Amino acid sequence: MSATATRTAPPTPKEKHWLLGHVNMLRDDAIGMLRGFIEQYGGIYSLSIPFHRGVVVSDPAYARYVLLDNNKNYTKSIAYDTLKPLLGMGLLTSEGDFWKQQRKLIQPAFHKKKLEELTAMMVERAEHWVDRIDAHAQRGEAFDVLPEMTALTLDIISKAIFSKGVEDKAQVVGEQITLLNEYTIERLHQPIRMPASIPTPFNRKARKSIDLLDSVIYAIIDERRREGVSKDDLLSMLIDAQDEETGVGMDNKQLRDEVMTIFLAGNETSSNALSWTLYLLSQHPEVEAKMVKEIDEKLDSGLQIDFTTVNEFQYVKQVIEESMRVHPPVWMVGRRTIEADEIGGHYIAPQTNVLVPIFYFHNSTKYWEQPERFMPERFAPDKRNAIDRYVYMPFGGGPRFCIGNNFAMLEMQIIIIILYRKFRFRLKEGFEVVQEPLVTLRPRDGVQMVAERR
Ligand code: HEM
After folding, report:
1. Cα 422 from Cα 138, distance rounded (Å)
2. Domain residue ranges of the chain, discontinuous segments joined by +
3. Ligand 1 atom nearest to CA at 324
4. How far is ligand 1, taken at its centre, from the CA of residue 41, in Å?
5. What is the pLDDT of residue 7?
6. With CB atoms counted within 10 Å of each terminal CB, which end of the chain scores lower, N or C?
């Protein structure tokens, strides 16, 4: 699939605005539009976006080619540019040799041994949350599980990074992260984008959120530098990490960028996945009953939840994997060509944004039997290996694969086991859950549920 003399660009769907192309449709119903075009135009088509080139690839072989085989010819796509004012040169948004070096420095923080050390903290924080949920259960009132899951995952990620939590600041951090998520997507939908440095009302609001988050993070970095004592957490690992050749460490700005990236990437995604899981379980009592039975049997037999035993709750894991199939928290990833390329016999010009619609791969009848059904049995051990890595990819693919995937699975498995040990969750009567594709795939108005003690 290397660049050849072929000059035919992928077909462009004709249904579009004469001036704005597909921008309005993307804003109003991105998932519906992208899926509709895939059905009409097949494995590869062009999008019409003023001043930009866009192509959507919906064949797993093309996804693999872009994310893995020819990844050297690709940077991150335009969507990640809008994250740069927030994440700077952090792992998610940096490129090339700089990214490679940072990934190498940060990778040890996610090694098995490190995760093992974090397990007790995750269990302790999830148990602490049981009391909060219990207060709702006792009142018998409906509550939105999304902010609860956001606060819990924020609590866990902040303890992993800083040893201590940011309890007193959790609300402000959670709110600002949600706001920035909305700003980012709004910015992405603006046909003409003002640079982030120009003080438009929109940019000023975003700046205020970033400043608030910065003040929390810089204060903790400053305190750690002042103390001069290394702790057993991610921040100390980042402060102590040095380039092998030059011996130079990260300055405060780079530390801030990495911390903010891990904060954002490790919170928003997991809290959405957990909220979707609670919702799906409430809609499928037979799956819930099977999962609860597994949890009860294991715990009644005296099994303690720790790093090695957590995977014995096999069905819990399958439930989470299936939930991320139906509602992938990262619903699309994108890359941008450096030099011209060729995909599926089509010419792809330099600087083309190539979009990989994960939500489509996860929900297409091409790759799954009855994809509309919530069926964790698909991920049973004897079937799991047969699933194509580029059909099911909640954590992405290629070298930019999610660095926190094992962290996320561990954390989510622990939270689900601990919550369902004590509760069942029912959707509030008449409440409708609506999927909204922002940077992550969120339940638009949250998920109003009632917790019932088991
Ligand atoms: C359910 C939870 C999660 C999901 C679905 C998820 C998904 C993803 C995906 C799809 C990517 C690739 C993006 C791309 O290719 O452009 C990614 C990258 C990343 N994720 Fe996650 N993630 C999750 C949890 C986490 C956690 C818990 C952390 C950190 C503690 C984390 C940190 C990162 C970072 C730093 C990157 C950038 C990696 C790089 O480019 O080298 N993620 N994630």
Report:
1. 12
2. 23-453
3. 5
4. 30
5. 74
6. C
Distance 193 CA to ligand 1 centre (A): 26
Atom of ligand 1 nearest to the CA of 80: 16
Helix and strand counts by DSSP (H, E) for the chain? 17, 12
Output 161-164 pairs: Cβ under 8 A, ≥24 positions apart. 161/233, 161/234, 161/235, 161/259, 161/262, 161/263, 162/220, 162/233, 162/234, 162/235, 163/231, 163/232, 163/233, 163/235
Instruction: Grade residue 154 by pLDDT with cuts at 50, 70 and 90.
Output: confident
Give residue 165's pLDDT: 56
Residue 374 contacts residue 393 (beta carbons within 8 Å): no
Cα of 107 vs centre of ligand 1, distance in Å, is 13
Q: How far is the CA of 396 from the centre of ligand 1 (A)?
A: 8
Residue-averaged pLDDT of the chain: 90
| Tokens read off for 62 | 């093309």
Residue pLDDT, tens place only, 330-375: 999 999 999 999 999 999 999 999 999 999 999 999 999 999 999 9
Q: Spell out which residues line ligand 1, taking CB within 6 angstroms.
A: 76, 91-92, 103, 157, 261-262, 265-266, 269-270, 273, 329-330, 333, 394-396, 400, 402-404, 407-408
Residue 1 has pLDDT above 60, yes or no: no
Using CA positions, which residue lies closest to atom 24 of ligand 1?
Answer: 266
Give the atom of ligand 1 at the shortest distance from the alpha carbon of 267.
27
* Nearest in space to 65 (alpha carbons), one of 425, 390, 421: 390
Higher-pLDDT residue of 196 and 241 is 241
**For helices 145-162 and 167-189, angle between their N-to-C axes, nearest 10 degrees:** 110
Residue with tokens 């994108």: 334
Distance CA 345, CA 259 (A): 41
Query: In this structure, are residues 46 and 53 in contact, taking their beta carbons and an 8 Å threshold?
Result: yes
Nearest CA to 147 out of 137, 161, 159, 133 is that of: 133
Ligand 1 center to 237 CA (angstroms): 19
Residue that has been written with the tokens 């969507």 in this structure: 79
User: Does 147 have pLDDT greater than 80?
Assistant: yes
CA 427 to ligand 1 center in whole angstroms: 29
CATH number of 23-453: 1.10.630.10
Q: What is the pLDDT of residue 409?
A: 98
